[in-house]
UniProtKB/TrEMBL annotation:
This is Lipid-A-disaccharide synthase. Condensation of UDP-2,3-diacylglucosamine and 2,3-diacylglucosamine-1-phosphate to form lipid A disaccharide, a precursor of lipid A, a phosphorylated glycolipid that anchors the lipopolysaccharide to the outer membrane of the cell. It comes from Crenothrix polyspora. One of its GO terms (molecular function) is lipid-A-disaccharide synthase activity. Belongs to the LpxB family.
Length: 380
């Protein structure tokens, strides 16, 4: 192992990547307290002690239209990160998710003779499986977070390790369910519905109004029902209030306790994404909903080969929870699905059993620690 103090360059472009990189670096420090890190990221990475050279809060967007709007800023961020590779000569570049950006950065780093560890595989099982070879040419190791992903890389002789999904370690409520219900002022005798409208501003704008409309329909049919919303770290109270002030339904918003909130729920309406996996790990029945800009949705229909977009369904390899996408994501359809979960045990119980199976498939966790060990092996 090199005797000089090791230094890693992290590149994380979104909120989830910021968390993953931060947790990985904290684990690395346990093995090598002298290790240093710089990079692109946000609050969590800064708190972990990584020297942030570019704040990724400006570029964490999803969808073709949104990326086009932010393209000049994304290009500026890429130029800056390439400069860091060239000038700082890190011992290792760790690219966390943020696929297209990090592919370009990895390619440049490889040309500069810097080792590249890519954390969180592009969804090659969903679209463009030919990318496996392309990524193989610009990285030294792919760290995947789903067990079934290793097959795609092994088939092309690309170095790959399954490290475990980061959510397995993260999804732990602070309180018992009864304590959490009491803490949030919820009545244990009455059904609780969770609203998870997403962790990006554009998701809130698209999904929260339709979720609130569904909540109004549900309350009209089931007057005893209670609603709760775990507020994502990067979403402001002011943005939520823009929508909540116009609804007749009482929605309790809770900050910084997502898993306590979810475990209190009898059912959840959730935007597609990592949240669906977190709900699955807590084995709470759900309906997965999503709307995209029309052009992004159309491109997705053309390019994406998987029949599902919800991670629990993808992991199970079959439809275990209902997905309502684009024009199907109506208030009426969402309310109907939640009502069925609440009132039809023969429908709800098998869903819960399948969610338990998904949880077992993902194993024991330890993703951040496994990543740290993998990085140190690459550095030695």
């Amino acid at each position: 192992m090199p005797q000089h103090p090791l230094r890693i360059l992290f590149s994380a472009g979104e909120s989830s990547g910021d968390h993953h990189a931060a947790n990985m670096f904290l684990e690395l420090k346990k093995y090598r307290p002298d290790i240093g890190a710089i990079g692109m990221g946000s609050t969590k990475m800064a708190q972990a002690g990584i020297d942030i050279r570019y704040d990724s809060a400006n570029i964490g967007v999803i969808g073709v239209v949104e990326v086009i709007k932010h393209y000049p800023e994304i290009r500026r961020a890429l130029y800056l990160m390439k400069q860091l590779v060239a000038n700082e000569r890190p011992d290792l570049l760790v690219c966390v998710d943020y696929k297209e950006f990090n592919f370009k950065l990895a390619k440049y780093a490889k040309q500069q003779g810097v080792k590249v560890l890519f954390y969180v595989s592009p969804q090659v099982w969903a679209w463009r499986p030919g990318r496996v070879k392309k990524y193989g040419a610009v990285i030294d190791m792919m760290a995947v977070i789903f067990p079934f992903e290793t097959t795609y890389y092994e088939a092309e002789n690309v170095p790959v390790r399954y490290v475990g999904h980061p959510s397995v370690d993260k999804v732990h409520p602070q309180y018992s369910k009864s304590e959490a219900l009491q803490h949030f002022g919820l009545n244990a005798e009455r059904p609780v519905i969770g609203l998870l409208p997403g962790s990006r501003n554009n998701e809130i704008k698209r999904m929260l109004p339709v979720m609130l409309a569904a909540a109004e329909l549900l309350q009209a049919e089931l007057p005893d029902i209670q609603f709760i919303l775990p507020q994502a770290d990067c979403i402001t109270g002011a943005l939520l209030e823009n929508y909540l002030q116009h609804t007749k339904v009482k929605i309790k918003c809770v900050k910084n306790m997502p898993y306590d909130v979810i475990q209190c729920c009898n059912a959840v309406m959730t935007t597609s994404g990592t949240a669906t996996l977190e709900v699955a790990l807590l084995t709470i029945p759900m309906v997965i909903v999503y709307k995209l800009a029309p052009i992004t949705y159309w491109l997705g229909r053309v390019l994406v080969k998987t029949p599902f977009i919800g991670l629990p369904n993808i992991i199970a390899g079959k439809s275990i929870v209902k997905e309502l996408i684009q024009h199907e994501a109506t208030a009426v359809a969402m309310a109907k699905e939640i009502k069925r979960i609440l009132t039809d045990a023969s429908y709800c119980d098998p869903m819960v059993k399948h969610l338990v199976d998904v949880k077992h498939t993902l194993g024991q966790g330890g993703g951040s620690k496994n990543m740290a060990i993998l990085a140190l092996k690459m550095l030695s």
